[in-house]
């Protein structure tokens, strides 16, 4: 497959039928598997792994040594920190109950879905199947085992919501019945554990 306006270094392993959008870069020792689809202006860092059929939107960053297993789906502008793991097996085993080695046909992969603009901090693990809402932030080292609401800041093992963040990634500050971003001035209201933006 001919790729134009794409930087793929010689030591990267990119499947011939992977689709890499214009302006994207795949760095040293990274692997992008068959049928993966990367949008425009994506960065896949050194030693990162993008599994078979993984879908990434535009302007995504997958940092060094992150493992993005299929069938993960990343929306536009998603940040995956160094050494993050997105799993894909609910009941992992190397062998079947009879002791025979499991093959690709002996289990059903499940994926992690990440909404627009969300960020997953270094060495965090997202245990599939989970959905990370748009603009949410998963703190470094967290282990996510349940869905994360949009704009939530989660941390810990297992990850729990410890606050809210705005599109700038900065923690929101409570101002009366509103949550306000100190960087952008965007305001939100919280209802039943979810955040809704207040139109200006």
What descriptive keywords fit this protein?
UDP N-Acetylglucosamine Acyltransferase, domain 1, 9-stranded mixed sheet, mainly beta, 34% strand, 200 residues, 0% helix
Explain briefly what this protein structure is.
It contains no helices and 26 strands. By secondary structure, it is mainly β.
Please characterize this protein's 3D structure:
The protein is mainly beta and 200 residues long. The protein has a single domain, classed as 3 Solenoid (UDP N-Acetylglucosamine Acyltransferase, domain 1). The protein has strands spanning 7-8, 13-14, 19-20, 25-26, 31-32, 37-38, 43-44, 49-50, 55-56, 61-62, 67-68, 73-74, 79-80, 85-86, 112-114, 119-120, 125-126, 130-132, 137-138, 143-144, 152-155, 160-164, 173-175, 178-180, 187-191, 194-198.
The proportion of strand residues reads: 25-35%
Q: Report the total helices.
A: 0
Instruction: Report how far the terminal alpha carbons are from each other.
Output: 47 Å
Write down the Rg: 18 Å
Oligomer: single chain
* Biggest pleated sheet: 9 strands, mixed
The CATH superfamily appears as: Hexapeptide repeat proteins
The strand count comes to 26
Low-pLDDT segments? none
- Give the second-level CATH assignment, the architecture: 3 Solenoid
In spatial order, strands of the major sheet run: 1-4-7-10-13-16-19-21-22
Based on CA inertia axes, which overall geometry fits? globular
């Amino acid at each position: 497959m001919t790729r134009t306006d794409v930087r793929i270094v010689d030591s990267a392993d990119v499947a011939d039928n992977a689709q890499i959008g214009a302006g994207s870069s795949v760095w040293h020792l990274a692997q992008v598997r068959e049928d993966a689809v990367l949008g425009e202006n994506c960065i896949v860092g050194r030693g990162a792994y993008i599994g078979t059929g993984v879908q990434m939107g535009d302007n995504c960053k997958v940092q060094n040594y992150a493992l993005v297993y299929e069938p993960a789906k990343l929306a536009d502008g998603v940040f995956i920190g160094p050494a993050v793991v997105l799993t894909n097996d609910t009941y992992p085993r190397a062998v079947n109950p009879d002791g025979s080695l499991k093959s690709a046909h002996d289990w059903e992969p499940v994926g992690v879905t990440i909404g627009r603009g969300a960020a997953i901090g270094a060495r965090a693990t997202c245990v599939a199947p989970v959905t990370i809402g748009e603009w949410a932030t998963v703190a470094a080292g967290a282990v996510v085992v349940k869905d994360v609401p949009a704009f939530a800041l989660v941390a810990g093992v297992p990850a729990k919501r410890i606050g809210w963040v705005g599109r700038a990634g900065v923690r929101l500050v409570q101002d009366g019945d509103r949550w306000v971003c100190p960087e952008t001035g965007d305001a939100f209201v919280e209802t039943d554990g979810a955040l809704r933006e207040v139109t200006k």
